[in-house]
Amino acid sequence: MPKRDDDLLISDMIECCVNIFEYTNGMNSNNFINDRKTVDAVIRNFEVLSEACKKVSEDLRSTNTFIEWKKVSDFRNILVHQYFGINYEIMWKIIEEYLPQQYEYLKQLAAKFSE
Which of 53, 56, 86, 93 sits CB 3.0–4.6 Å from 72 for a disulfide? Predict the structure, then answer.
């Protein structure tokens, strides 16, 4: 597979955020935790988002420190390697409290590529 440029990786990350927001729209934590299909879809999008994050160039990461690159990429390792130990309440908290801000940062970063 050819290497994706930073602008495409950022676009991938934004798309994953949008998917997660769409999948969980109108849900509360209890609805989310008890909906296996939605949980599975959200996990998949977090995996893709985190993998794209890991592939973003060091130059882009070092000049855009408002995005928590390491935390995002480390989250993939938890999802992939500790899949039986995933705490869905923490995942919900990430969706509610952390992801919206990171999404806004990603959109700002994407806009820089359009300039």
Answer: 53
Structure-token pair, residue 42: 């959200």
Query: Does any domain span residue 1?
Result: no
Q: Identify whether the C-beta of residue 33 lies closer than 8 Å to the C-beta of residue 39.
A: yes
- As given in the structure block, the two tokens for residue 70 are 């390491």
Which residues are identified as catalytic?
76, 81
Among candidate residues 43, 56, 66, the one with its CA nearest the CA of residue 12? 56
pLDDT at 75: 86
Cα–Cα dist 72/16, whole Å: 12
SS3 65: coil
Domains: count for the chain: 1
Interatomic CA distance for residues 56 and 67, integer angstroms: 12
Greatest distance between any 2 Cα atoms in the chain: 43
Tell me the whole-structure pTM to 2 decimals: 0.91
